[in-house]
Amino acid sequence: MLAFILRRLVQAIVVMLTVAFIAFMLFQYVGDPVTNLLGQDATPEQRERLRADLGLDQPFVVQFARFVGNAVQGEFGLSLRQGRKVSALIVERFPATIELAFAAAVLALAVGVPLGVYAALRRGSFGAQVAMAASLLGVSLPTFLIGILLILVFAVELKVLPSFGRGEVVAIGAWTTGLLTPAGWKHLILPAVTLAIFQLALIMRLVRAEMLEVLRTDYIKFARARGLPDRAVHFGHALKNTLVPVITITGLQLGSLIAFAIITETVFQWPGMGLLFIQAVQFADIPVMAAYLCLIALIFVVINLVVDLLYFAVDPRLRIETTAAAH
Fold first, then answer.
1. What are the residues facing 170 on neighbouring strands?
2. Cα–Cα distances in Å, from 299 out to 42, 128, 159, 161?
3. Region 170-176 average pLDDT
4. How far apart, in whole angstroms, are the C-alpha atoms of residue 277 and residue 266?
5. In the structure, what pLDDT confidence band is assigned to residue 151 with cuts at 50, 70 and 90?
6. How far apart are CA 156 and CA 159, in angstroms?
7. Radius of gyration of the chain, Cα coordinates, nearest whole angstrom
8. Which residues pair with 175 in a beta bridge?
9. Contact between residue 100 and residue 261 where contact means Cβ atoms under 8 Å apart
10. 194: pLDDT strictly greater than 90
11. DSSP of 27-61, one letter per residue?
12. DSSP annotation string for 290-315
């Protein structure tokens, strides 16, 4: 187990260093930060002074080492657009994105797993066919189109839900949440549903496929031959083994929800990191772009490590293979 964890940690460090290098290259080749900060009318002396203050006159290796050191401490300099510390901007926007991503993940799991089980156990029925057709539609439709349609129906026509913003939030230390106010919940519904639909459809189709495969295995046939009731066979044996790959996919999809909430946040003007990144791209705000890239990579690496450990704990075959390889 310790060797497994150490191996994954080494891989995570390599991935983060690679992402940090890519983010650092943004500073080097996408615009001149000195020009962005001082403007076109600055004198050569002012440019050289600022370049020295920022450490841009140092060799490439020294600059990269300083960038990695600052990134480890969560420092990415000042936003070229807002003139504020990038770390402060990320801290402000991070709670909104996490809240949206977790709401979408819970919704996708709470609906996707039962629908997948139903579609597998009632294969061929009208309800299962409708569920599969709906899942195909959910996978196929672009996220921005789903968001626009939901706004048109529930905000414009029915006028029951707000179409933009986060609503009233409550500050708990440095963390802000809308889950403690009615307005926060109302503002969360449409973006969470929009972000969850693709993941819901994916989880449902995965659960159905895995469930059908498990139901054809010999140990399920043996359980039926022992006279176990269908409920025990389906939920005590089949579903338990179905959820092993679902854990992996769901964990990785949680990272995707956080990373790819950009479109949903833009459509609903949700004040999260995705909207901050889009604004940074529009204004070539390189420090914000680099910070976002590094943070998303870190989230993926952490989630991947947790999923690997859960998979290792849940599936005994991996422990047997690892022990056999060690001997």
1. 177
2. 40, 35, 36, 31
3. 86
4. 10
5. very high
6. 5
7. 24
8. 172
9. yes
10. yes
11. HHHSS-HHHHHH-TT--HHHHHHHHHHTTTTS-HH
12. HHHHHHHHHHHHHHHHHHHHHHHHH-
Pairing relationship of beta strands 175-177 and 170-172 according to DSSP bridges? antiparallel
- Listed in sequence order, the residues at least 6 apart from 44 whose beta carbon sits closer than 8 Å to its beta carbon are none
CB neighbours of 265 closer than 8 A, spacing ≥ 6?
A: 96, 97, 100, 191, 271, 272, 273, 274, 275, 278
Burial of 270 (0-12, 13-18, 19+ CB in 10 A): buried
CB of 204 within 8 A of CB of 112?
Answer: yes
Task: Residue 164: name the closest of 140, 186, 138, 181 by CA.
Answer: 186
**Percentage of residues in the chain with pLDDT exceeding 70?**
87
Spatial neighbors of 187 by CB under 8 A, at least 6 apart, are: 161, 162, 165, 166, 167, 178
Our CA dihedral for 312, 318, 320, 323, rounded to 10 degrees, sits at -80
Nearest to 208 by CA among 267, 134, 296, 276: 134
**Alpha helix (H) residue ranges in the chain:** 2-29, 33-38, 44-53, 60-72, 86-121, 126-140, 143-150, 182-215, 218-225, 230-231, 239-259, 262-267, 273-282, 286-314, 316-326
Measured between alpha carbons, how far apart are the two ends of the chain, in Å? 14
For 26, 154, 161, 240, 266, the CA distances from 189, given in Å and listed in that order, are 36, 10, 8, 30, 15
pLDDT digits (tens, 9 = 90+) for 2-15: 777 788 788 888 88
- Residue recorded with tokens 């991503």: 101
Least confident interval from 45-59, 78-92, 178-192, 294-308: 45-59
Say which amino acid occupies 239: L
Give pLDDT tens digits for 103-136: 998 999 899 888 988 888 888 788 888 988 988 8
For residue 100, what pLDDT is reported?
92
- For residue 262 the two structure tokens come to 């950009």
Give the pLDDT band of residue 312 (cuts 50, 70, 90).
low
168's tokens: 């009233």
